[in-house]
Amino acid sequence: MTRLDNRDLEILRILSREGRITKAELAGRINLSPTPCWERLKRLEKAGIIEGYRAEIGLKALGPHVMVFVSVELEGHRAEDFRRFETAIDAQPEVTGCWALGGGFDYLLQVVTRDIDSYQRLIDRMLDARIGLARYYSYVVTKPVKSSGLPPLEMLLGEGGQKK
Fold first, then answer.
1. Is 160 a residue whose pLDDT tops 70?
2. Which residues does 127 contact at the CB level (< 8 Å), separation at least 6?
3. Which CATH number is 10's domain given?
4. CATH of the domain at 89
5. Is pLDDT of 44 > 60?
6. Mean local confidence (pLDDT), 100-116
7. Of 27, 76, 78, 156, which is most buried, counting CB atoms within 10 Å of its CB?
8. Tens of pLDDT along 126-158?
9. Are residues 78 and 120 in the same domain?
10. Domain that holds residue 97
11. Are residues 136 and 71 in the same domain?
12. Closest alpha carbon to 72 in 82, 64, 62
């Protein structure tokens, strides 16, 4: 178990909003000298709490696009059916997120393409590939409302800052 204190939580909050912040500036913001701040960062990375650093891309600035969430139900529910589908999805660059679900549907996909026609061509390719897709339902995103990227850490950790 990795114990997190208020400074660790603040490091996570700052990095989730400002991934390019310098280590010196981060140390100053959490009121630590650079070496202990660096040690905390390394500990958070080693524990798998910080998984990476990335840039947020402004898709609108790149050109027209459409984002579609797709709920998927598979034909079969054996381990090999799930593996076949997941392997096929991993090879599709338009699928930018995929989550296995418990409940009514098997997967939720996040798809980003240039337009609805290119989205439909992707679906047609997946149906033709016989990857086990039985049913799918498409939900076109009309506008982003919230995408903070950071869940309420204190709620996840419970009392004492200990990772659950």
1. no
2. 133
3. 1.10.10.10
4. 3.30.70.920
5. yes
6. 96
7. 27
8. 999 999 999 999 999 999 898 877 778 777 776
9. yes
10. 59-140
11. yes
12. 82
